[in-house]
Amino acid sequence: MAPEKRGGVVDHRLRVYGTRNLRVVDASIFPSIPAANTFAP
């Protein structure tokens, strides 16, 4: 998540820049890899 002018692809609400009604709902948008397991029950 970063501003589009800095090379970002999604905004803080996970909306993809340059599209309508498209959001990313995946861990691939994490700015860094967490040190813990991301799987939740």
From TrEMBL:
Q: Which UniProt keywords apply?
A: FAD, Flavoprotein, Oxidoreductase
Specify the Glucose-methanol-choline oxidoreductase C-terminal domain's residue ranges.
Answer: 1-40
Q: Which GO terms describe its molecular function?
A: flavin adenine dinucleotide binding; oxidoreductase activity, acting on CH-OH group of donors
Q: Does this entry carry the keyword Cytoplasm?
A: no
Q: What InterPro entries is this protein classified in?
A: FAD/NAD-bd_sf, GMC_OxRdtase, GMC_OxRtase_C
Which SUPFAM superfamilies has this protein been placed in?
FAD/NAD(P)-binding domain
Instruction: Please indicate if the UniProt record lists Membrane as a keyword.
Output: no
User: Which cofactors, if any, are listed as required?
Assistant: FAD
Cite the Pfam families for this sequence. Answer: GMC_oxred_C
Gene3D superfamilies, per database record: FAD/NAD(P)-binding domain (3.50.50.60)
Family that this chain belongs to? Belongs to the GMC oxidoreductase family.
Protein's name in the database:
12910_t:CDS:1
Give the source species: Acaulospora morrowiae
Which lineage? Eukaryota, Fungi, Fungi incertae sedis, Mucoromycota, Glomeromycotina
